[in-house]
């Protein structure tokens, strides 16, 4: 089967990038014809992405004008040339109206899926708005699957689940990494340095609690992001003291050698997650996991407090410190590590993830085609005087002829992840938390 992924090239760090880099070679080994189309532009650097992930077979998608009409034409041309049996969108919103445009004129007959990697209101709103174009959605988390059905209104047979996977040794490291437990407790925090989801600025309060207990610890922070400067400022005294190290962005090999091979525990502070893949990586490497009860963990039924991880409520610095302090007990840490390793070995290996994604993609291909929409495409938003004077199509022709180009302030404006102005993130999180509440009578997963 001929499969095409369409993805951004602006981001080199994160679970989505690791997932794609692992999945594509695995599918090719199993006989799939796979290409990865990467969008390019001022903010999206296909060459840099290809250097970071040389195993991916890449084709570049350029938009010389920077307009929405330009995005639709560029993607449309790609699909007409490639004619994949299945095209999978990875946070590129223009894919779906481009497919709808081609289907109206009979120029594309392949299936279209959305791969959903975030618990975000704008993505779910985009899914709902394009459900007559998107043949199936594949999500990496059971809660996200439930929200696709309840919030976006997608029929159950078109909502598919396929988790992330990680490399797992047959047995956990013996002794566990990090060195003797009688020295400093070595804690790692890994991810995007963002307060909005990752709650990276909870770290100072947690570390303050550990200092008040006179706990001997060292914290290593691996990652980069928009809140890196704020975090470095508030942690400056601890960095100067040598208690905290900032490692910056690490590639997969450096993450294994500098973090997973030399720490006792991974600390997760997130408000929501659709994995996280760093938890499975740490568990596979033999680290104990101390995590917030982030929205997304309960329906996934992976992290179990006191069994394979130690959990605390989101934002509760004292409870987080309590759980970290418990890891000084080597017997408890050993039990957690063994159970965590068993979890990833049974559910989150690269092989299990690959098989789940392959089944989901095959299911999407086998679905009956969606009915063709008789309605004309909605008009594109007016972005300038040329659009008002000439209409989007003729204005696009003139911009290309004259070499005119819109400049965008950030990657998500150049190639938006979702259509529209976003959504009610707080409302979505409340609804998601209600689905995950312990007293929720019947979850979507159980139906």
Summarize the structure.
The chain is α/β, with parallel strands linked by helices and 447 residues long.
Note down, in words, how this protein is organized.
The structure is a single chain. The chain has 447 residues and is an alpha/beta fold. The protein folds into two domains: 2-165 and 354-433, Glycogen Phosphorylase B (Rossmann fold); 185-347, 3-Layer(aba) Sandwich (Rossmann fold), CATH 3.40.50. 41% of the residues lie in helices and 14% in strands. The protein is built from 18 helices and 13 strands. The chain has helices at 15-29, 46-52, 68-82, 95-104, 121-129, 142-150, 203-212, 228-234, 236-241, 252-260, 277-285, 317-326, 330-347, 350-366, 385-390, 392-402, 411-414, 425-436; strands at 2-7, 33-39, 58-61, 86-89, 111-116, 136-139, 159-161, 185-190, 217-222, 244-248, 265-268, 288-292, 310-312. The strands form two sheets. The chain has a seven-stranded parallel sheet with strand order 3-2-1-4-5-6-7, with helices on both faces. α1 links the parallel β1 and β2 (33-39). The longest helix is centred in the C-terminal third of the chain and has 18 residues, at 330-347. It is globular. Residues 441-447 have low confidence and may be disordered.
